[in-house]
Amino acid sequence: MAKRKLESIAVMTGGGDCPGLNAVIRAVTKTAINKHKLTVWGIQDGYLGFIENRIERLRYEDTSNILTVGGTILGTSNTSNPFRFPVKTGRKTQMRDVSGQCLKALSERGVEALVCIGGDGTMASAANFARLGLPVIGVPKTIDNDLAGTDVTFGFDTAVKTATEAIDRIHTTASSHHRVMIIEVMGRYAGWIALYAGAAGGADVILIPEIPYKLDKVCQYVLRRSQRGKRFSIIVISEGAKPRGGHMVVLKRIAASPDPIRLGGISNKLAEDINAQTGLDCRAVVLGHVQRGGTPTPYDRTLATMFGHAAIELLVSGVKNRLVVWKGGALSSVPLSSVAGKTKLVPRNHNLIRATRAIGVNFGV
Ligand code: F6P
Fold it and tell me: Which pLDDT value is given to residue 1?
């Protein structure tokens, strides 16, 4: 029997926003409508809108003039998991699997497949929907660059550029005041942003979660610099970094989120610790969500366009339940189930660690 032609798809953005989401939405929608004459639906606000049945038609013109715009026209949420969603019954709140109502919302509209743009939390739920029979193609998004299966996620390049620009600005105030300036960047449990922005910004010390730091070593290093007449130091630290034998600094916990822990504040602790041990004047700067905003770089715009196009081509050719990836300089795809719940960390022998170490950068060891 001939395979039935795909007619209708939905697209959603899940997890934290990041530059390039709109470029993917544009590529998905325009490829689907322009090339394959599909009907496209946009799920609003990630899994929250999916659960709440907020799904609207996306027309070709809805995705015009968004290529260069940060954020997502669909909205997103990183606090909802359809397979573990808080439902109030009387005075009690219970965690329930509400995935059935999501699938119903799609079938009521005749939607046959889903393009799911997100990071590891979003992909874990996408893999669960795939198991329930919904054809899904994932597109890897996150400024953290920590998604397994792909060499790079879109959004990372823009975040590194933003963080590098911030480090460049901090350099001048650090040297004027002869201070130790500590710049905390995002990245959750992976040090990609810190490593790349630290290297590009000429940081003296780079501290990442993959290499727990020894406070003594960091203090000795900045003291030695000041004794050599270098009267300031730049330290770039990941939000997920921790001292050897110590803990990450948790900012808050969000119970309903697929990853409830929000990190933040390690730079303040480090500033106090270095000041107490060396007497040097220290300041901490937490870059925070500024790293998620702004217009995507040309690299992120083009990667996002290739990812969005590839997602539709896979669905149309009958391929399902895979994540579009960039591997070894080419586009390909891997099973969704092979990446769900996995984190891609910085290998300790990464070329950029070796190169920066060789030129004298300290990693707190
Ligand atoms: O995953 C992207 C990210 O920006 C992380 O780098 C950061 O830890 C987290 O999201 C912050 O989440 P929220 O937007 O909920 O504060």
Answer: 58
Could you tell which of 144, 145, 287, 289 is best to mutate to test the pocket of ligand 1, judged by most ligand atoms within 8 Å of the CB?
144
- Ligand 1 atom nearest to 146, measured from its CA: 1
The candidate with the shortest Cα–Cα distance to 288, out of 15, 48, 77, 16, is 16
Ligand 1 binding site (Cβ under 6 Å of any ligand atom): 16, 78, 119, 142-144, 186-188, 239, 262-263, 292
User: Across all residues in the chain, what is the average pLDDT?
Assistant: 96
In the residue annotation, 300 being an active-site residue is answered as no
Tell me whether residue 110 is exposed, middle or buried, using C-beta atoms within 10 angstroms of its C-beta: 0 to 12, 13 to 18, 19 or more.
Answer: exposed
Amino acid 255: pLDDT: 83
User: 17 CB contacts (<8 Å, ≥6 apart)?
Assistant: 70, 71, 72, 76, 292
List the beta bridge partners of residue 331.
326
Q: What is the model's pLDDT at position 340?
A: 83
pLDDT in tens, 5-61: 999 999 999 999 999 999 999 999 999 999 999 999 999 999 999 999 999 999 999
Alpha-carbon distance values, 150 to 48, 332, 344 (Å) = 26, 9, 9
Closest CA to ligand 1's atom 3:
16
CA 46 – CA 119 distance, rounded (Å): 12
What torsion, rounded to 10 degrees, do the Cα atoms 125, 190, 139, 307 define?
Answer: 180
The pick from 17, 143, 153, 261 for probing ligand 1's pocket by mutation, whose C-beta has the most ligand atoms within 8 angstroms, reads 143
Give 276 Cα–ligand 1 centroid separation in angstroms: 30
Question: Model confidence over 136-164: pLDDT tens digits?
Answer: 999 999 999 999 999 999 999 999 999 99
Q: Which of 17, 45, 120, 144 is catalytic?
A: 144
Per-residue pLDDT at 79: 87
Which ranges constitute the DSSP H helices of 156-207? 156-177, 192-200
pLDDT exceeds 80 at position 293:
yes
